[in-house]
Design a protein that fits this description.
The protein is mainly alpha-helical and about 260 residues long. It is built from 8 helices and 5 strands; from the N terminus they run E-E-E-H-H-H-H-H-E-E-H-H-H. It has one domain. Helix 5 packs parallel to helix 7. The longest helix has 27 residues. The radius of gyration is 19 Å and the shape is globular.
Length: about 260
């Protein structure tokens, strides 16, 4: 039976020279920022915003993403361990980044950016969510190459076997997510450049929240548990954290459409 399934066992490392390893995850994480920068460059050029403002925004985004994602994992998923070993919070090479934490970190960083650059908060977040959706595609691609965040056991014909985890056929949950995030990116891109959705404050932000975290809520049903504490939960931590974000997204969409109509 196992011959019907896809055996997925790539090395997480691109190459290793003298103990120095370059990992696929790091490369794809950087690719998210690189292509995000190019997209924001196009957006800023369209709206005649100086390039130096984009360079400042990139620094805010990088810090907000990394710090938020790392602290989110440590505080949401394994607080007991990291409170007992606080120095391990800095050990990002061992893995552990949470998308919910990244979302909070990015929103906070953009708040500082908005204040210091004298730009409206809605203006900047409505543009940033476009590239964040694309970054989600790259990050889940990195998770796939790391054989992590795997799906639950299944017998569907497209199931993956991750030998680095076990020999059980599982849903390729990473592929489901990366394809969803890529589709959401193209939708937001189309709405911004073809339908001028950026002129409706918080519309793109609300759509991003509902679509990304709505999909995240449902895909969690076919993902393996991330930490042991989730074994007894009806809804896991990722789903519980997604619910308030979805609700806020719905409110933002309603607010934006109502304001546009009035």
């Amino acid at each position: 039976m196992t011959s019907l399934f896809i055996t997925w066992n790539p090395s997480p490392e691109m190459f290793n020279i003298g103990g120095f390893a370059v990992r696929w995850y790091g490369l794809l994480f950087a690719a998210g920022f690189f292509f995000g920068y190019l997209i924001m460059q196009k957006i800023f050029k369209k709206e005649q915003i100086p390039a130096k403002v984009l360079d400042r925004l990139t620094i805010y985004m990088l810090l907000g993403t990394v710090i938020g994602a790392r602290l989110g994992h440590c505080l949401f998923y394994e607080p007991g361990y990291y409170f007992a070993h606080p120095w391990e919070i800095l050990n990002i090479r061992q893995g552990g980044l949470a998308s919910h934490g990244a979302a909070i970190g990015i929103l906070g960083a953009l708040g500082f950016f908005s204040y210091f650059q004298k730009k409206s908060y809605s203006w900047i977040v409505d543009r940033i969510v476009i590239v964040v959706a694309l970054s989600g595609f790259f990050i889940r691609s990195g998770n796939l190459l790391n054989s992590e965040i795997v799906g639950s056991p299944t017998n569907v014909s497209w199931a993956f076997i991750f030998p680095q985890v076990d020999l059980i056929p599982r849903h390729p949950a990473q592929i489901y997510e990366l394809l969803a995030y890529l589709a959401i990116f193209f939708l937001l891109w189309w709405l911004f450049f073809k339908k001028n959705a950026g002129e409706k404050p918080f519309l793109l932000t609300g759509l991003f929240m509902v679509l990304v975290f709505g999909f995240r809520f449902f895909v969690e049903f076919i993902k393996d548990i991330q930490v042991d504490s989730e074994k007894t939960m009806t809804l896991n931590l990722g789903q519980r954290l997604s619910i308030p974000i979805i609700v806020v997204g719905i409110i933002l969409i309603a607010f934006s459409l109502r304001k546009a109509k009035s």
